[in-house]
Design a protein that fits this description.
alpha/beta, Purple Acid Phosphatase, chain A, domain 2, five-stranded mixed beta sheet, four-stranded mixed beta sheet, 11 strands, 32% helix
């Protein structure tokens, strides 16, 4: 079984198409799973439409939920910029778009071979707002994965690719399709000029995890972002690193 893992598209249809093309060039997959945060970005409708065409399972992300339930309360300058921009992107969603987002699953368990399974989530199994990093303390992971016995644990949210052991399981984060972070807090966020995804292969009890990056037309994407009229466009575009 060969499973494609995509996450955190963030309204970047240009990067999503590049990832899907790269998957096809590599031989395709038996199943594709999206780990959430599809629409919050300069191409919200286009990204939702493409994911809907894929007819794949989609996990609810924190920004997906904000598009339905309202924006988070923030007080810092960067948070306020993000919320104002997200509110503007959300204004373009149709009732059909919102109905599609409501269909996203909180979590998903995917059967593999030999009776094993893969457990999918956005932030953690208990909250799409949780962060799991390479250095997250084991006691925090124990709280997040309490009662989960799957040997493969797959989530997104951090925009950072990761493979990490936890007890008898492996935690996988395929990174972000549309907003890959080159630098993260506490430094200023710098967005990388590539799209990330993963391919998980399970055959005869053997597990292979391939974290991948591919290029996309970043300049074209940023130009359409600027032309869209989105708030704080110059600041947002300035976060991208293109060298």
């Amino acid at each position: 079984m060969r499973i494609g893992l995509i996450s955190d598209i963030h309204g970047n249809r240009v990067a999503l198409d590049a990832v899907l093309d790269d998957i096809e060039r590599s031989g395709g997959v038996d199943q594709l799973i999206c780990l959430g945060d599809v629409a919050v970005g300069p191409q919200p409708n286009e990204s939702l439409a493409r994911v809907r065409e894929l007819d794949c399972p989609v996990i609810m992300g924190n920004w997906d939920a904000c598009f339905l339930d309202g924006m988070p309360e923030v007080h810092d300058e960067i948070g306020l910029r993000l919320v104002e921009t997200a509110e503007w992107w959300a204004s373009f969603l149709s009732d059909g778009d919102k109905d599609f987002i409501r269909s996203f699953a909180k979590t998903l368990e995917v059967p593999l071979d030999d009776g094993a399974s893969m457990f999918c989530f956005h932030g953690s199994p208990i909250s799409y707002d949780d962060w799991i990093f390479a250095a997250t303390p084991e006691e925090d992971l124990a709280r997040m994965f309490d009662g989960i016995e799957a040997p493969v644990l797959v989530g997104g949210h951090t925009h950072l690719q990761m493979i990490r052991r936890y007890e008898d399981a492996v935690i996988v984060n395929p990174g972000s399709v549309g907003l890959s972070f080159k630098e993260w807090w506490p430094r200023p966020i710098r967005i990388a000029a590539w799209a990330e995804y993963g391919i998980l292969t399970r055959e005869h009890g053997q597990l292979s995890i391939d974290l991948r990056r591919t290029t996309f037309d970043v300049d074209a994407f940023l130009e359409l972002s600027r032309e869209s009229g989105m708030p704080h466009a110059d600041w947002w575009i300035g976060c991208w690193v293109r060298e």
